[in-house]
Design goal:
With 276 residues, this protein is α/β, with parallel strands linked by helices. It is 36% helix and 23% strand. A six-stranded mixed sheet has the order 6-7-8-3-9-10, with helices on both faces. A hairpin with a 2-residue loop joins β4 (79-84) and β5 (87-88). α4 (127-140) crosses α5.
Length: 276
C-alpha cells in the first residue's frame, strides 16, 4: 500500500485474518414447484481447509450455486449442517462474502464509491480510514487510475475487478465465487485467472469457486470437486498438483482437464441411462 502514514485502524483492517475452514455434512436441499418437488442436493459432505482454493464443477442445475448459497447463509438446508470454524452457519455474515456472475455494482456510485460501500458497516473506521482501505484494494486489482470512473464506462472485466475489490474490502475469511467470469471473453478471463491467483496468495482467503468451465477449475483450484447431476452429489475429487501461477494453455493443465471432462461426461451418460 502506497499511502504513507496509516492509522492503527487501517493497519488492523488490512492485516491478514485467519482464513476459515468449512465442514459441510450431509446437506440436502429440495425445491417445490407446480411440477413437483426437485431434490437439488442429496447428502453432500465435504471439507475445505484454511486458505484452500476449492472449485466445484458440474452441469447446469446440479446444485452448485445452491450449495454456495447455503454456505453463505443465504439459504437453509432441509437437513445436514454447515460449520465455519466449528460454528454453525445459520445466516449471512461478514466472514463469508459472495461474488456473483453479475457484478451487481451501484451505477450511481463511481468505482471508489462501490468499494467504499461495504466499509460503511465498519464503525471503527473513520472516513479517511475507509478511503485508504478502499484504495488499497483498488490497487490490488490494478484499478487505481479508474477510481473516479463511472460504472457504465468500464469493460466487463473491469467491472468484475471492482466487484472483487468490493468483496475483499471487508476482509472476509471466506470468499464464495459463483461463476464470476462466465460472461467475459476468453482473453479477459485468462487475465483474471492470474490476478485471482496472485490475490489469493497474498491475502490468504479460503475460496469456494463454482463453475461449469473445467479448464478454469483446474487453472484455479487446489482441488476440483465434480458434482453429479440431478440431484447434486460429490461424484469425484481431483487434487491439482500443478505449480502456480498456472498457464491455462499448458499440456499439464490440459491433461487434468481431460480427465475431469471424461468423468463429467461419464456421469452425464450414466444419468441419461438411468432416466431411460
Amino acid at each position: 500500500m502506497r499511502f504513507g502514514h496509516k492509522t492503527g485502524s487501517v493497519t488492523e483492517e488490512l492485516a491478514l485474518v485467519s482464513p476459515s475452514k468449512l465442514a459441510i455434512d450431509k446437506v440436502s436441499k429440495s425445491f417445490r414447484s407446480r411440477a413437483g418437488t426437485v431434490l437439488a442436493l442429496d447428502r453432500v459432505s465435504l471439507n475445505v481447509a484454511e486458505a484452500e482454493f476449492v472449485c466445484i464443477v458440474g452441469a447446469s442445475g446440479c446444485g452448485k450455486s445452491t450449495l454456495l448459497n447455503i454456505i453463505a447463509g443465504l439459504e437453509k438446508p432441509d437437513s445436514g449442517t454447515v460449520l465455519a470454524d466449528g460454528k454453525p452457519v445459520t445466516a449471512p455474515g461478514r466472514e463469508r462474502l459472495v461474488m456473483f456472475q453479475e457484478p451487481a455494482l451501484f451505477p450511481w456510485l463511481d468505482v471508489l464509491g462501490n468499494v467504499l460501500f461495504p466499509l460503511k458497516l465498519k464503525p471503527n473506521l473513520t472516513k479517511k480510514d475507509r478511503r485508504d482501505v478502499a484504495k488499497y484494494y483498488l490497487e490490488l486489482v490494478e484499478l487505481t487510475r479508474f477510481e473516479r470512473s463511472n460504472i457504465h464506462e468500464l469493460s466487463g472485466g473491469m467491472k468484475q475487478r471492482v466487484a472483487l475489490a468490493r468483496a475483499l474490502a471487508p476482509n472476509p475469511r471466506v470468499l464464495l465465487m459463483d461463476e464470476p467470469f462466465a460472461a467475459l471473453d476468453a482473453l479477459t478471463r485468462e487475465q483474471l485467472y492470474g490476478d485471482l491467483q496472485r490475490i489469493w496468495k497474498s491475502r490468504r482467503k479460503t475460496i469456494v469457486f463454482v463453475t461449469h468451465n473445467v479448464r478454469e477449475a483446474v487453472c484455479l483450484g487446489d482441488r476440483v470437486l465434480l458434482f453429479s447431476p440431478h440431484p447434486g452429489r460429490v461424484q469425484e475429487e481431483f487434487v491439482i498438483e500443478l505449480p502456480r501461477p498456472r498457464d491455462l494453455n499448458s499440456v499439464e493443465l490440459a491433461t487434468y482437464a481431460s480427465r475431469i471432462t471424461h468423468a463429467l461426461k461419464s456421469g452425464a451418460q450414466s444419468e441419461t441411462a438411468t432416466a431411460k
